[in-house]
Amino acid sequence: MEKTRDNGMMNNNMMMKKTTQGRKKIEIKKIDNLSNRQVTFSKRRVGLFKKASELCILTGAEIAIIVYSLGKRVFLFEHPTSGSVIGRYARGSSMFPNEAFHVGADILEHKQHYARVSKQLEAEKQRKEMIEDSKIVNGVGGYFWWDDPIDNLGLDELEQYMASLEELKKKVVMRADELMIMNNPSSSTSPLIDVNSTTSITCDDFFLNQQPAAADQYCTSIVPYGSHDLTNGHV
Amino acid sequence: MEKTRDNGMMNNNMMMKKTTQGRKKIEIKKIDNLSNRQVTFSKRRVGLFKKASELCILTGAEIAIIVYSLGKRVFLFEHPTSGSVIGRYARGSSMFPNEAFHVGADILEHKQHYARVSKQLEAEKQRKEMIEDSKIVNGVGGYFWWDDPIDNLGLDELEQYMASLEELKKKVVMRADELMIMNNPSSSTSPLIDVNSTTSITCDDFFLNQQPAAADQYCTSIVPYGSHDLTNGHV
DNA sequence: TTCTATTAATAAAA
DNA sequence: TTTTATTAATAGAA
Question: What top-level branch of life does the organism fall under (chains A, B) (predicted)?
Fold first, then answer.
C-alpha cells in the first residue's frame, strides 16, 4: 500500500526517471493555487462532460450541463443534439418558461422560429470565432438562458402572470426604444448585438476518439460576460 | 492481467466465497437490459453529481445539471444554492434569453415573479400529466424550462417577441377559462394545484458523508409528468 | 443497497 | 499538454 521508487540499483536518475509520483489524495476544498485550480478545472470539466456523455449513451438519459468557470467562461453540454435535451423541454417550452403546456401550437411556432434564429446566430458566431479555449475578444453576457422548473400555478397566479405580461410588454417597448437610441449606425453592427464577441466551441472531439457513440452529444464553451481573461486565458 | 479465483484448495465455497468478480470493462453503448440500465443510471447519476459537486468546490465553478432519466424523472443539480448558478444568469437573464445584460433591474424583478409563477405552473402539469418516454398525451411537454443561450436579440426580434407576448396573453386568458371550467370544487384541493403530487428529493445527503463541504450544493429529483413509476420505481 | 476486483479518472511533475 | 502512480468510480453479483 506504500510503494516508493526504490528497486535497488535505481537511485540515480540516469535512466528511467520516475516522471511523477502519481496521483495524490486531495481534500475537497477550494484549491488555493490559481494555476492548479485552473488545471484541475480543465481536467475535471472534461471528465464531467465525459461522464455525462456516457450516462446518456449507456442509459438513454438526456442531460444538459452548464458550467460557469470562475464566473467567466460558460461551458455547455447537451445530449442529445444541440438544444434538444433541452430542446425538448426548452425550445419546446422556451421563451415562456412553463407555458408550453398551456399555450398552443402557434406559440410553439414562434418558439421554433426563435430556436431557428438562435441556431443561425450561433453558427454565425462559431464562424467568426477563433476557437481557442481561452481568449475573449469583447463580449456581452448571458448567452445561455435557463430557468429551473419545480413549481406551481393556480388561477390567481395566472392572473398575476397576465398582469406581468402586460408589464413585460411595456418593458420591451422601452427597451426597444433604448436600443433604437443606442443603436448608432456608426458601427457596422448594433453595438448591443455584436455576435462577434462570443466565443463558441463545440467539443465533440473531446469524446470522438473514445466513444464514437458519444459523438452526437453537444457541448459548447462560450464566453458570457465581459472579455478579459483574468484567469490566464484558460478557464 | 487475468486473475480468476483459483488458489489450490479454494474451489469449494465453504468459506471466503469471492463475493464478486469485480468491475469489468464495458463498452459505451446503450445497455440492453432494462434492470441493469436502471442500476447503472442510478449509480452513475450519483457519480456525476458528485463530480460536479467536487468541481464546484475545488475550483469555484458554478454548475447546473439537468438529467432526464428515460424521459421520466428529472434530476437537478445546482451549485451554489438553489437557482443561483443559474439564478445568476437564469433568473438574472431569463425571460429574454440573452438580454439579461441589456435589461435593467426592474425587468429582473418581473423575472423573479415570473420564475415563481412558473414553478407553480409546472407542478400543475406534473399533476395532470402521465408521461411516457416518448409519448405525449396531450399537448406539449416541458416541465422544466430552460433555453439555451447562445443567442442574441435585435430590434426586430424584440418586436416579434412583443407580438408573441400579445399572443401569449390571449392564450393565458383562454387557459384561465379552461381552468375555471375544469376546476371543479369536488376535490378538497384544486385538482390543478395540488402540490402533493410532486415528488421532490433533496439529495444533499448523497455527499454529506463524503465531502462535508459539498453539503451546500443542491440537487433535486422531481417527477415531471404524472407520478407513476413506470420504470420500477427507481429511474 | 452492499461488497470487491478492476477499470477509469487524475494530482503532480515535466 | 503528456506521463505515471495512485486514488476513486463502478460492473457484477448477492
Answer: Eukaryota
